[in-house]
Amino acid sequence: MIYSQTRPFPPWYFLVPGIAVGAGVLLPLVYLIVRAFGAEVAELIQIVFRARTVHLLGNTLLLVVGVVGTGILLAAPLAWITARTDLKGKRIFTLLGVLPLAIPGYVMAYALLGLSGPYGTFASLFGPSFPNLQGYWGALIALSFYTFPYFFLNLRTTLLGLDPAIEESAYSLGSGAREVFFRAILPQLRPALYAGGLLVGLHVLGDFGVVSLMRYETFSFALYTQYTAAYDRIYAAWLALMLLTLTGSLLYLEGRLLRGTKFHRTGTGVSHQASPISLGIWRIPAYVYLCVLTLACVVAPIVTISFWTLKGVDGSYMQDFLQALSGSLLVSTPAAFITAAFAVPLAYLGVRYSSSICRTLERGAYIGYATPPLAFALALIFFFRGIPGVYQTIWILIYAYTIHFLAEAIGPVRSALYQASPRLEEAARSLGYRPFKAFLKATFPLLRSGVTVSIAFVFLATMKELPLTFLLSPAGYETLAVNVWSYTTEAMFAEGARYALAIVLCSALFVGLLLMRGVKKTYSYAEAPT
Predict the structure, then answer these.
(1) What three-state secondary structure class fits 277?
(2) How many domains does one find in the chain?
(3) Domain residues for 18?
(4) 265 or 40, which is more confident?
């Protein structure tokens, strides 16, 4: 049972961090709006309705639709095979289907650029070459390979949780396999498709690394070029607001599509797991599909990165590598702990207090996560520019990391709070402890696992983050992500390989540790005898 206190005003030591986060999210965005409207009406009309804006809008929407569609095509068969069939090795292929998350989009773009062309990895290993993957198709492939696991995880989880009674009823009424899929199964997959589409769409809208490396103009790429070249503040602010509008529209669309949908079981009886479907003659095509997908999304990028790493090993860049690694750790480590520290009071407000103020403060953290990183970085530049001791320091970078990734840290802490009974604190207070000390003594020890996972999530995310790091870090400050992007833009694949490999290894370690237990639990439940 979930308990919720109804007092409208929680203790100040929970309320103050929530207000601080809300102010940290809103102040730069408010300043961005003020800056955008700081021009005459005629100038604003010219900015908003210029031909370039329409071109950027078309390119951005085309990329979102292409990546979402490709992600569904890649993930749906994989989810079905690993969740509903009798194929051997499903656990291995499930882990391989998640591993592309360990390869950030800009690293995937680096791998594709290093693989193609007359001097690429493919030409060096096999002789013939294929043209460089750039422009729309290069961005589409790189982003699709990186983001399709979001669809896969959502679809697979839903398929494992479907009640087979609906399918059995449809078959008993004379429906064929195709009718059962489209009329009984597919409607129940809608929430998973919408959730995956939302995550993928937000990633595509906020992506800067892939589109800049592939030279494909979207709103994010135009924001970067406007910042580095002309730096027209009003036009840059309007580009940021347009990008925010697209993000808000995507969130609104997902909410509208899910409104009123209910797929939970309403009848009596006990739900049971569906029996695995025998693939029969489709077993070999299924293995071929899984192997080709693994080869394209996991093996080829890792082989390409390893190839260029070995090609560039001479020891001359070791000092630069260690400097970039220390630069990444210097900001990622404190950002992870600070973000987790703010996540605890915000999650506590949302779980323990039912007032609208508390829910608003908790949900406000998601505004920072939904804001595209490049737009958020530009807002911070506008807001903090000229403030000594803040602008272009690691402190503003840590602040940006904390606000942007706070939503990732809240989830694990909130899940742990739902399992911690508030009666433990009530018992502690009855023994004479003050409320805050009662929280530390009775509840906080039960949150340690959630806080640990939050720290790991944020640390992994900040190690891979590119747009915020690139625009907000001090001049000359090096990180792994910035060096991968910088060397790749100059086609120096051997020099950038070691940085890309370090990011992949670090990400793969965290992804493996966080998912192995979850996959094991899912299979033990799904494969239990009925």
Answers:
(1) strand
(2) 2
(3) 9-49+326-413+448-478
(4) 40
